[in-house]
Automatic annotation (TrEMBL):
Coiled-coil region: none
Keyword Nucleus recorded: yes
Keyword annotations: Nucleus
PANTHER family with a match to the protein in the record: STEROL UPTAKE CONTROL PROTEIN 2
GO molecular function annotations of the record: DNA-binding transcription activator activity, RNA polymerase II-specific
Keyword Phosphoprotein: no
Matching InterPro entries: Fun_TF, Sterol_Uptake_Regulator
Organism per entry: Colletotrichum liriopes
Name of the protein: Sterol regulatory element-binding protein ECM22
Length: 245
């Protein structure tokens, strides 16, 4: 009861900037949760991790509660995926949206191992030698998608929403995801530009705080033995530092 009240009166208003999108989080998603328990667990996980952010003295308590609800929600989510159809996809979509929020917030405010955490969190969100021709095409497509995100954010300005950037991980080819998993140095350069765009929207959303800085650190660590690409990845980091001192 405490977490649901906190979600509807506080958390939901922090998940978007536009009033109509805030209303979706405040009314539509909870209604889906009342009908589908796994969605409700996702909502409560986000609410709990928001309280962990707001109440540092009770941080561990609420992180544990958030983890409990996330685990329970994932159990129902996996079952729902077995039966997903054109007519019943909405609950799964709602829960997957809460996963994004949970993972982002956990990476920003949870415990992390140095130089390891953020990239592994990106892999959770989006469940790299010389490039062969097929991979080159995939990278060119990924760059075009990042360019699209850049245009969206530039046009939106101070009203930039999370979705204007976070569509990117869902559109990149599977080969890019595989390259993140094995630590291909070329994908680290690509991620450095993603981190720069992340820095643009980060100030507006509590669950993104610290993400770009952590991602830049992880990228530098993974490129430490590749001076040429390490230097290439420095430009986005420097721009982020210049724009957001």
């Amino acid at each position: 009861m405490e977490l649901m009240h906190h979600y509807t009166t506080s958390t939901a208003h922090t998940l978007a900037l536009r009033a109509d999108m805030q209303d979706v989080w405040r009314t539509v998603v909870p209604q889906m949760g009342y009908e589908h328990p796994f969605v409700l667990h996702g909502i409560l996980a986000v609410s709990a991790i928001h309280k962990a952010h707001l109440l540092p003295s009770q941080r561990e308590k609420y992180l544990d509660i958030a983890a409990y609800h996330q685990t329970r929600g994932l159990e129902g989510f996996r079952t729902a995926l077995f039966y997903i159809r054109d007519t019943n996809w909405k609950p799964s979509f709602c829960f997957s949206s809460t996963i994004v929020l949970y993972v982002c917030a956990l990476a920003a405010h949870g415990s992390r191992e140095p130089a390891a955490g953020t990239l592994s969190e990106i892999l959770k969100l989006f469940v790299l030698t010389d490039l062969p021709e097929g991979s080159r095409r995939d990278y060119e497509f990924a760059v075009s998608e990042l360019r699209k995100a850049t245009i969206l954010l530039a046009k939106a300005g101070s009203q930039s929403e999370v979705g204007m950037l976070f569509f990117f991980p869902y559109t990149v080819p599977s080969s890019i995801i595989a390259d993140i998993q094995v630590g291909n140095p070329y994908v680290m350069v690509l991620l450095s530009y993603f981190a720069l765009l992340l820095r643009v929207i980060q100030p507006s959303f509590w669950f993104l705080q610290g993400w770009s800085e952590q991602l830049f650190e992880d990228i530098e660590w993974r490129l430490k033995d590749n001076p040429r690409l390490w230097n290439v990845a420095q430009w986005p980091k420097q721009k982020a530092a210049e724009l957001y001192k």
